[in-house]
Amino acid sequence: MKEETFTTSYLEKLIIEDPKKYEVIGIVKASSDSGWTAQQEMDYAIAELKKQAAKLGANGVILLSSGEKSSEAAGFTGSSGMMYFSSVEKASTSGKAIYVIEE
To answer: In angstroms, rounded to a whole number, what is the distance separating the alpha carbons of residues 51 and 31?
Structure first.
């Protein structure tokens, strides 16, 4: 089983390949537009993914997708009457929240 270990207070393992025996608790999804770099955005999204899985009682997450980017446009009118538009990119990821019985 390949795995990456992250130090968090939620889950320590993000699993890339299925363990021998496990139960799927649910599907979790997360996104983030925080961070100065694309890597930081993904780090925040993965941390949120693991946090959501832990809330469901999972002790691991099998990564289904990562690195997906989506853009949202936002606009507003300033006090001078000028309209301003901005684009915000989000990194998103999803996974199976699982309970590992046997690695």
So the answer is: 12
Helix (H, G, I), strand (E, B) or coil at 54: helix
User: Does the predicted model carry a pTM greater than 0.90?
Assistant: no
Question: Given strand 83-102, what is the order of strands in its sheet?
Answer: 3-5, 13-15, 60-77, 83-102, 21-32
> What's the domain count of the chain?
1
Q: What's the CATH number where 30 sits?
A: 3.30.110.70
Residues 97, 65: Cα–Cα separation, whole Å: 13
Task: Give residue-wise pLDDT tens across range 11-55.
Answer: 667 777 888 999 999 999 998 877 777 788 888 888 899 999 999
Q: Which residues pair with 60 in a beta bridge?
A: 98
Which of 69, 103, 81, 70 lies closest to 1 in space, CA to CA?
103
